[in-house]
Amino acid sequence: IAAMQPSTNWHLKENARDHHTSKFSSKELIVRRGQAFIVTFNGTEQPEQNLTFIAETGPKPSKLAKTQATFGISSTVSKEGWSAVLQSTSSNSVSISISSPPNAVIGRYKLSVQSTSTGSSSPASLGTFVLLFNPWSSGDDVFMPNKAECEEYVLEEFGIIFAGNKNHINGFGWNFGQFQGDVLNICLSMLDRSLNYRQDPATDVSHRNDPKYLGRVLSAMVNANDDHGVLLGNWSGNYEGGKSPSSWTGSGEILQNWKKSGFKPVRYGQCWVFAAVLTTVLRCLGIPTRTITNFSSAHDADGNLRVDEFYDAAGNHLDRAADSIWNFHVWNESWFSRSDLGPSYSGWQVLDATPQEESGGIYQCGPASRNAIKEGDVDLDYDCPFVFAEVNADCMYWNYEPATGKKTLIFSKSTVIGQFISTKAVGRDDRVDVTNDYKYEEGSTKERDIFKKARKKLGLEDKFDPTAPTPQEIDQKPDISGKFKVAGPLEVGKDLNLILVLANLQSDAKTVRVNMTAWSTVYTRRPVHEIWKDSVSVTLSPKEEKQFPIKIPYTEYQQQLTTDNTIQVTALCHVEGGIQVLVQRDITLDNPAIDIQVLGEAKVNKEVDVEVIFTNPIDMEVMDCVLQVEGNDLLRGILEIDVPPLKASEKSSTKFKLIPFETGPKHLLVNFSCDKFADIKTFKMVNVID
Prior knowledge:
The protein contains 14 helices and 38 strands. The longest helix has 15 residues, at 271-285.
């Protein structure tokens, strides 16, 4: 007989509903592994029992690599491999239910059917479908028993990412958009552009059943280093030639730009952008994923669980160490089992797409089991020492004399790093603190024991470290203490008022020379521009406390501020006859507020007006004002509106129209920028009704 040319009905609606894939807007069938889907086709003249199906994926499908399966019609679902069960037949069509194994390779498959009775006819193609991970199926490595968590960590397209610093946490909205437009295809082509795929396509595809493998590969592909991945990092404070990292409001635009440019890295990303894009990709493929923000996050470049910071005699924070302590750092957690390590290490796994240190020769990080981090099991795969240091490293602050290269320890702290570790709550727009899932209580004996255990496993206990301070240096006690207190609002556009409080801890008078500096920084605390400096000499009587008010006018810092709105204030106190004391504070200034109002009810396919209101809080004109708006199911793409300049204290109202095309709670994200304020963000929940 001639080769059949069947026409196929993929039952897109019913299958998508059963497989939690209805949010994809695709003409192609998208289903999850380990679960049956229905397909009907006609044009077969053969009795059903003579039909054989072939499902295959990748460039070199093979049974051995589990990238090809051949299966006939059977009466029950196979426990191991693929199977087909007859549903119904009519004179010219057959409906079958096809099941894939819960550990099938994910990706795009070709499905064909062949008649076995004639033995000669070549297989007829039924078309293609995409197979994803299945967190709703108990046999899957990514199985998540809690349905509300599946909804949040796989199906939710809106997120809140936390930033700021430990004294001042703020959150902003993000549109993950994993079901929008072409995102799934871009995620699949991301896998085909990885170094592993380029080196050995068939082997790479055969590993795509394993969330550990895919998580690690994608943590490398989201940054541009090594493999021309999605995003180019830039922490310089100068973002010419691209978009500043803080201006993005969602992953969709970044992924689309990457594809449109012929897969040239998109400029520019910083940690939360890398983490947000990785969240999009992993949720899209069906791996439950969330973003995690760690405040006072250590970047331990040399693997000694210690972070060194250097200051000169004038109190300037020197940018000379590979180590650093970031105001915050954002990474990912993905949920899957760790058959390689054992059941106690399953659950949340840390992945980090920000290019910080090489692992296995390229910029990738994880998956590191969160339980392994908490227990100090830093010898387990992958990259546990680096992640352990991010939340646990000890800090050493040194005085460094550039002329002589001499360094003197000012003080060390073991309780600074890894605070207020945060993620968005399930089903609500709140912050949840997960610090206790990463470590035992700071300062407890258990926490110190785990730290020692980690040092021992890394061979640091027995090795002499010439760069480490001596026990004498660590034990020296300062004669005075100091701190910066905030005295007034921390807002861009207002003068910055602080009070330096110095206290003499001894019962004899002390003479102190205080060198103060303020620098604008990026959120990694890398100094960018000096803003202010001053020095005073003071005498403190026994046990006396003195206050020194500091005022940094807006006009002095306005030109120097980075888009992160961060300023580091330092006072290095040289105490006569005693050790130096370093007083330091990182300030994050708030942007002025912006307000969104939806004027009237939001109904499907009906126009509704939205008003965005901004008042210029400063006594100067603001220019180059641009409003960016995005929101899934509310508008297609990104709306960009130029707003006229605003005089001092002037209020502006910008109106635009939406035509929502889906019901339910939707999020509208707004980003407003002008020459004096960078990236003022807000979001609004819009409930769309029929």
